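C-alpha cells for Histone H2A. Go.
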Amino acid sequence: MNGKVKGKAKSRFNIGLPGIMEYLAVKILKLAGYAARDNKTRILRHLQLAIRNDEELNKLLSDVIAQGGVLSNIQTVLLPKKA
C-alpha cells in the first residue's frame, strides 16, 4: 500500500472527517450557549469557558488556544451587587 489509502477506505475518510468536524462544532457551540444562558447574555462569548469546563474537549483542544490554560476566577466580593 505504501502509505496510500485506496478504494473504499478512501471514500469513507472523505465522509468521516467533515462529520467529525461538524459534531465538534455543534458540541462546542451548544456548551457555549449554555454558558451564555447561565451568564444571562445573548452573545456566545464563552467558547473557551465551554471548552475548558468539558473534560474531553479540554483534553482534545488543550494546545489549540494560545495561553488559554487558566480560566479567570473573579471573587464574588468583586462582582457588582444585584439590586
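The two ends are 70 Å apart (CA to CA).
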